[in-house]
Amino acid sequence: MKLVDLGARDTPLVVFGGPYSNLHATQALLAKANALGIAPRNTICTGDLVAYCGAPAQTMALIRAAGLPVVAGNCEKQLAAYRMDCGCGFADGSTCDLLSAGWYAYADAAIGADDRGWMDGLPDMVRFIHQGLRCAVIHGGLSDISRFLWSNSPDAAFAHEIARIEARGGPVDIVFAGHSGIAFRRRIGPVLWVNAGAIGMPPNDGTPRTDYALLRDGKVTLHKLDYDHAAARADMQAAGLTHGYDAALATGYWPSEDVLPASLRRSS
Questions:
Q1: What angle do CA 37, 13, 1 make, to 5 degrees?
Q2: How far is 101 from 122, CA to CA, in rounded Å?
Q3: Which of 250, 212, 201 has its CA nearest to residue 45?
Q4: Are 198 and 158 in contact (CB under 8 A)?
Q5: All domains of the chain, ordered by start, with CATH?
Q6: Which segments constitute the Calcineurin-like phosphoesterase domain (predicted)?
Q7: pTM score, two decimals?
Q8: What's residue 268's pLDDT?
């Protein structure tokens, strides 16, 4: 496991996840951070730079040029190792699993050796101190990079990951994570677990807006990101990625909910 310690970061920080090859959302997130006076060094990504959307190479180039701290997501791990699937943790044969074959193949063809080498060097965890609070940033979990933790997952599931984080990096007050694509805050004993969501795909809530987290003066808040989703959808359509996630950028609803716990589905 690779750990990077950023040291003290007492000024505000943005934490965001899942650019997902969505260039327009990534541009909007960086513009928002700049408008807030937050430098790239304090704008941290929880991984999965490339995935569903239509501009993987351009999104990678933008992130790398900005010089942001980035935690490796499962997509980075898989692409760096030249593996043939995204490693997202979808159940075999599920709709999400079947749909992933199309977008992963497109991303795989677009990402070159230099980008894969950069991905291979990304850390599994980033740590920093903010206003005396010990913070860690991971992707899904340390036990499993593709672990889905939801707002209603059992306390024990979070506690298991927190124990691993502390065993590898020391005591922690706040954990920032991603992977599941839906932002939430959850208190697990003394530790605040924050899923920063994903900027590249809406959180299945019926609007095209996406999510990011802001850490300021020791407090974490979740915020909505508006961006040019029509242009992002056009990128997907031009790339031939028209199997459902392109429509999700506009409708705000995922093409399948089979990855979600039953209690979080629209039909529940």
A1: 140
A2: 24
A3: 212
A4: no
A5: 3-264 (3.60.21.10)
A6: 40-214
A7: 0.96
A8: 47
